Each structure stands twice: as C-alpha cells, then as structure tokens.
UniProtKB/TrEMBL annotation:
<feature type="transmembrane region" description="Helical">
    <location>
        <begin position="203"/>
        <end position="222"/>
    </location>
</feature>
<feature type="transmembrane region" description="Helical">
    <location>
        <begin position="295"/>
        <end position="312"/>
    </location>
</feature>
<dbReference type="InterPro" id="IPR002656">
    <property type="entry name" value="Acyl_transf_3_dom"/>
</dbReference>
<feature type="transmembrane region" description="Helical">
    <location>
        <begin position="70"/>
        <end position="88"/>
    </location>
</feature>
<feature type="transmembrane region" description="Helical">
    <location>
        <begin position="32"/>
        <end position="50"/>
    </location>
</feature>
<feature type="transmembrane region" description="Helical">
    <location>
        <begin position="143"/>
        <end position="162"/>
    </location>
</feature>
<keyword id="KW-0472">Membrane</keyword>
<feature type="transmembrane region" description="Helical">
    <location>
        <begin position="265"/>
        <end position="289"/>
    </location>
</feature>
<keyword id="KW-0812">Transmembrane</keyword>
<dbReference type="GO" id="GO:0016747">
    <property type="term" value="F:acyltransferase activity, transferring groups other than amino-acyl groups"/>
</dbReference>
<dbReference type="Pfam" id="PF01757">
    <property type="entry name" value="Acyl_transf_3"/>
</dbReference>
<keyword id="KW-1133">Transmembrane helix</keyword>
<feature type="transmembrane region" description="Helical">
    <location>
        <begin position="174"/>
        <end position="191"/>
    </location>
</feature>
<protein>
    <recommendedName>
        <fullName>Acyltransferase 3 domain-containing protein</fullName>
    </recommendedName>
</protein>
<feature type="domain" description="Acyltransferase 3">
    <location>
        <begin position="9"/>
        <end position="311"/>
    </location>
</feature>
<feature type="transmembrane region" description="Helical">
    <location>
        <begin position="7"/>
        <end position="26"/>
    </location>
</feature>
<feature type="transmembrane region" description="Helical">
    <location>
        <begin position="234"/>
        <end position="253"/>
    </location>
</feature>
Length: 332
C-alpha cells in the first residue's frame, strides 16, 4: 500500500465500490434506488484527487498515463474473461453466452457484456480533466459555480426532451455523459480544499433544486421518480442526487480519524484496488450469483471473493514488479 494515502478518500472509494457491487446482486428495489450515488461518488473522488493540480504540465502525457491505468486492466480482463468463456463453451459443447457485437461493444466500453460502461465514464472524465480543472480555477464566485453545475445537470434533460439524444449516438453515449458526470467532478474539485461543512449553502441550493425536480416529476407522472431511470444518460435528478450524497459523505467521513490497524489497512487496500475488485466481480455476477438465493449472501460472497482474487493477484505481481516496470499497470 502506498504511504501517505488519504484514508478519507479511500473510505469514499470503499463506499462507492461496495454500492456498485450491491447494484448487481438483485437487492430490493428501495436499496437499488438508494445506492444510485455510487458512480457519481467515484467521479467526485476523482475530483478530490486532482484538486491539488493547479495545472497539468503535459496534457498528452497525462492522457497516456491515465488511459494506461484504465484500459490495460480492462482489456486484459476482457481478453481473459471472454477467451476463458469461449474455451469453457467449446469444452462443454454449449453456446457462447456473448454475441460478436457484444464482444466488440465491450472493447469500445459500450453496453456489450455489461458493466464496462463505467470505465468509459472514468476515461471521459480523465480526458476532460485538464479542461475542468481550468474551469474550476477560473470560476471564483460561488453563485456562478452553482449556476454552472445546475446548467450542466439540466443539459442532458434538455437534449433528451428535444429528441437530440436519440438522433445522435455520440451525443447520447459520450457528450451527455461527459457533461453530466463533469458536474459531479467539478464539485469534487471545489470540495477538496474546503473546511468541513464549508459550502453548505451551495448544498442547500442543490437540495432545493432536487426537491423541485422531484415535485415536477410527481406532478407530471403521478409518482416520485426512480433515480435509476435517469441514469442512462445521466440526467438532472441522478446528477444532483450524486452531488448531494457525495458532498455529505465527504464531509461526514472527515469527522472521523482512522488509527493504524486492520480496518484502516482493509480500507486502504480496497481504495487502492477498486478497478480490479470491480472487474473480478463481473464473472461471479454472471455465473455464480444466481446460485445463492439471498441477495445479501450473494453480495458478501461476490465481494469477498473479488477482494481475495485481487489480493492474490497483487501478491503474484509483487514477485515481478522490480523486474518488469509495466507490471505496475496491473496493480491498483
């Protein structure tokens, strides 16, 4: 584990990855809806991490480094997972569960076999991070920044309402994701240097807009909104919910201190290895999750075995890390 890691940020990563896995075990709907802040929280954390970078010396080098960190693990996993699934199907004389188009889409981080779309979000935010950092530095007045976040959250709504999203694949699958999650990233950037609870007025504004949107939805549809409905692409209700919960968690978590021990070590490990824990959980969701009847047992089983596999992988890689520097891209 890296020395000097911010345990509070890793606590947020721990919460985020836990809720993401929770979404894939068929938990009750009220839990499924409640935990929809998970991916926004991980984007919020990205903002916290990059907040101390007043500028990026070489944008191209930064893009290459971040792309390697994201794409090498994902592509290696996809090759092993899809290749292993193919060999298993041949050996058992069964049909391949994935179509050719699903496989191709997966490598483009689209719907594909499912789940890998999250990496597309992280990659989009990484590509646009220099622009967003510059924007956050240039906007000094709090009310202007607040209005900017509201604007970013409403743009996807407008694009969908006007029919533009259905007409343009690039707009629907890339631009709207970049704008929606960009709002969460910007709030993360601004929140890193603030004292605990500093910015509560802006939070109150986000809550008021969120409630107003819920009331509008109730009036229009006759029922309160299901937040998961507004996730693909991210729309205002989903975005603002993610902003609100992420901000609250960040400020609550900082109230606690974590002394050295097993709990802190565990949190740091999960926080440092969220991508691989996420990737390892995918095949167990597909093939083994349905073998366990209770959703909470599925969650524990899939989560624990994913962590064990990640820990084992790291131990093996440690044997080769000094000899082969590229191995570092397969850790963390």
């Amino acid at each position: 584990m890296q020395a000097g890691r911010n345990v509070h940020i890793d606590v947020l990563r721990f919460i985020g990855i836990s809720c993401i896995i929770l979404a894939h075990v068929a938990a009750p709907n009220w839990i499924y809806q409640w935990r929809t802040f998970d991916v926004p929280l991980m984007v919020f954390v990205s903002g916290l991490v990059l907040a101390n970078k007043t500028r990026i010396d070489s944008v191209v080098k930064y893009w290459i480094k971040r792309s390697k960190r994201l794409l090498i693990p994902v592509y290696l996993f996809l090759l092993l997972y899809i290749g292993g699934t193919y060999l298993f199907s041949v050996a058992n004389g069964t049909n391949m569960p994935f179509t050719d188009s699903q496989i191709i889409e997966s490598f483009f981080l689209l719907e594909g076999i499912g789940y890998v779309w999250i990496i597309r979000v992280f990659l989009l935010i990484a590509i646009l991070a220099p622009l967003y950092i510059r924007l956050a530095l240039d906007v000094h007045k709090k009310y202007i920044f607040f209005m900017l976040i509201i604007l970013f959250s409403l743009i996807p709504d407008a694009a969908i309402h006007l029919g533009f999203a259905n007409e343009s694949f690039i707009l629907r699958e890339y631009i709207l994701y970049a704008i929606g999650y960009g709002a969460v990233f910007l709030v993360g950037l601004k929140s890193a240097s603030k004292q605990i609870w500093d910015g509560w007025r802006e939070l109150l504004g986000y809550v008021c807009i969120f409630i107003l949107l819920c009331v509008c939805c109730l009036y229009r549809n006759g029922s309160l909104p299901l937040l998961s409905v507004y996730k693909f692409p991210p729309q205002s209700l989903f975005i603002l919910y993610g902003v609100i919960v992420s901000w609250l968690l960040w400020n609550v978590v900082r109230l606690f201190s974590f002394s050295d021990g097993m709990l802190k070590s565990f949190i740091l490990f999960v926080g440092q290895n969220t991508i691989w824990i996420y990737l390892f959980h995918i095949p167990f969701v597909y093939y083994l999750g349905e073998q366990v009847e209770q959703w909470w047992l599925r969650f524990i089983f899939i989560y624990v075995i994913s962590i064990i596999l990640c820990f084992s992988k790291n131990k093996v890689l440690d044997l080769y890390l000094e000899r082969y520097s590229w191995v570092s891209y397969l850790k963390g």
